[in-house]
Amino acid sequence: MTLIKQSQESLEMLVIVSRLLSSKLEISELLTTIMRLSSRVVGAERASLYLLDEKTQELYFDVALGLPKEVQKMRLKLGEGIAGACAKEGISLIHNDVSQDPRHTRKVDSQSGFVTRSLLTCPMVIKGKVIGVVQAINKIEGDFDETDRNNFEAFASQAAIAIENSRLFASVREEKRKLEIVFKKIKEGAVLTDMDGEILLMNSAAKLYLEHDKYKFTNIKSAFDKFKTDAEIEYKKMADSPNLINRFELEREKPKKLFLEVSAIKLMKSQNKEEVLQEGWLWILADITDQKMEEKLARNFLSLISHKFKTPLAAINGYAQIISNELKENSSKLTKKALSTIIAQGQKLTKLIESLLSFVTINNQEEGQINLSEFEIKALLEDCLSEAKQNALRKEKEIVNFKLMVPINFRINADYQMLKTAIRNLIENAIKFNPASEKLVIVSAQIKNQNAIISVGDNGPGIPPEELSNIFNKFYQVEDSFTGQVDGWGLGLSLVKRIAQMHGGDVFVKSQIQKGSAFSIKIPLK
Question: Of 266, 287, 308, which residue sits at a domain end?
Fold first, then answer.
């Protein structure tokens, strides 16, 4: 009956201990609770708790109730003392007369003035790894026995789980704190949501852009409904997309004109070694209102000057040609040279205005305005190369070798003339920015991941890495000291990018200094 009663009391004590430990999440409070409960579990005078420093592989007192500061600073190496031996071997140890064990270190007793007679030492283990040691010191009645060992091991196991949970909680809380700091500091709007768009965290900039204080929405889709966009369609499109980052724009008229560029970033987690699943979204909102208004002004200005210049240029070129035809043989060399210069520069300016007008026309078109038709990709590329070869023949000083590579011919649904304009621009760039005496232009096409990839490569000087992020900007050209600059607006690559985007695609470049460049247009196959 006595053993049954003791077992029942031990079980009740462990249940109480379990409840107390599971209720503590603050690590300092938890460790203090473990210290106070350790002695009660097995009826000891007091207890010690050591944690393992993973970096130094030493045991230290994280909480030392009633111990002098000198003792609290003490550290034990793995294998040093009974606690160090327990941590190293990972097994519980009973010592009812510590004076008989040479491993017992008297450093703590000598510093604290406490006399240790008996010890029950137990490792705290998580996933096969020792994270610390708990000791019951001086059995009050009798000696430590196997029942005490079993009860203390059960207690140590619960304590280890509680410590691990507390550390995980502290880690999550710290990460959340860091994330909140980042959210508050960045000037862009930032919203963290779950898979369904339910808002978990939002910074002040996002609240301002989306008027959260006014509408009190809890789902990001509800916020998008206040803008000119179909939130459900846009959300589904992004969710189905294989891309980790998807971008789109939001436009709002009232209370004032606002354009936002939204970057929707998929937050992924590893389910196992082979499977990666999405667990949420990070939405970054950038105010691009000023940029959009500037672009609108620029488009209107470019459209105006391109049309206004066209008529007087036609008159200048026309009359210059008439004067040239009427010029007498005995005219002075200066007159002939002046007229020749006027005609040449007039033609050059006409070409610049035509390229500007072409850019403005295409840049002002919406995606739905493109004239789609189905055609063979090889036929388009042969058409582009035919024109390029004829232009190259007119320039006697240039030697240009063209190469066409289409391993498998395929059909594409696109705007033929627009795509031809884009490829022609890439071919022209490959020639005019290449100072080599013998130029090589390779035009190719292939299918990759359900996309048509049309590439134009050259053997030119290449593009410096620091310039790659700028070359698709309007009016941007690489420094003439590097390219041997030629006449132009710097609109060719910007036009290529715009055409690719109007087809739902993009353009990218690979380049190596002194080896050449390859520009590729990616268009989804529909």
Answer: 287
